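Comment thread on ticket #2218

A.B. wrote:
> Attaching the input chain for the structure job we discussed in standup.
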Amino acid sequence: MNKRIAALTLTSALVAFTAPALAQSQGDWTLGIGVGYLDPKSDNGTVLGMDTTIDSDTRPIFTAEYFIRDNLGIELLAATPFKHDITLGGNTSAGSVKHLPPTLSLNYHFVTNSAWKPYVGAGLNYTIFFDEDMPGLEIEDSFGVSLQAGLDYMVTENGAVRLNVRWFDIDPDVNLNGRNIGKAEIDPWLVGVSYVHTF
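C.D. wrote:
> Ran it. Output below, let me know if you need it in another format.
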């Protein structure tokens, strides 16, 4: 009797583990809220003939995704403004700047046989710069591609914890008193952790 119960329990566990995971269905929505660490690449271009350094920042991030087909979704990324200090020549402060990085992506979510669900995506990013606190300094808005990969872990039938990594092509022109003085090569990575809910 005990052997039968043990065998039944083991069989049930194997069936539960190997059964196909539910796919994201056409018409589903997901909403996500979390925190993102934005880290510009180490070499940020030349401004006024000096090497430029732009520091990192961490802010809340938000996502909304609509599935146009099973496992294929269109996602919008939003955030509260990131703020970065700018240094020229290694020791000359050029003040700070804020930016918003709204990004529209097309994501493919893989169907797996477990609670782990990876996905990949590509899209377009429009970065809006504002609140430059150095007089006369203006960083122009930037338009470029974005790539991402992520992994969801389903904690409930409709809820998941998400780890996500994105790369953005952000290379805005920099002006001082209306004159171009260089280009900021930011090209940052965004590492995010979020809770995502499916509706």
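A.B. wrote:
> Thanks. Noting for the ticket: Confidence is low (pLDDT under 50) at residues 1-21.
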